[in-house]
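Q: My labmate handed me this sequence with no annotations at all. I'd like to see what the chain might look like in three dimensions before we decide whether it's worth expressing. Could you predict it?
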Amino acid sequence: MSRRSGILEFAVLGLLREAPMHGYELRKRLNTSLGIFRAFSYGTLYPCLKTLVANGWLIEEPGSAPEDALAASLAAGRRAKIVYRLTAEGKEHFEELLSHTGPDTWEDEHFAARFAFFGQTEREVRMRVLEGRRSRLEERLEKMRASLTRTRERLDDYTLELQRHGMESVEREVRWLNELIESERAGRDQRRSPSAEDNARQDTTSGEAGGLPRHRGAAPPEGGPSGAPDQPDPSDDTTK
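A: Here is what I predict for the chain of 240 residues:
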């Protein structure tokens, strides 16, 4: 399996954990919620869905029937849409993927997908992924600075400005990660020293929400949402 395919499967399982969807709904969510998938086609999504079904992680179900006679009349002659639903085995597999914190989770595309599902991820796992991502970017930044020092005299003004822009982008993300990590640590420290009121309050979220800085409403520096979704393909997402 390619890295790109693995990221797509992870994202599909995560979205279907929230609710069953048909293919067009999935593509729209992937396109608008996870910017790293803004330029992929149904030709990429449907083989992924078929693989997940074959593995027993998804099941296919017919879409709901029209609610009234008018809708039934409008739908006459059309083929019913297929709805994809996560199985118990699929949920267990997704939770295993959520617990993974290896070096691939620090890379650009995979990190963006993982971050989109941080609300479903345990706090300690979030911390390891964030710290690994920061370490990877600090290494990248050091290499960029060394390269710029070696080649500065040979670069024209525009190429030099482009390299500076790239460095500034990495520096911004490192600062952003620092804020997230500090917020996660603050939340962890609060858990270690709970008040009586905190002890009486039941935590109803598996991911222990509250790690994000309250003053930040921005999306991650990479993998932000794209523009308006494409129009549906009437030939897609149907039973044969």
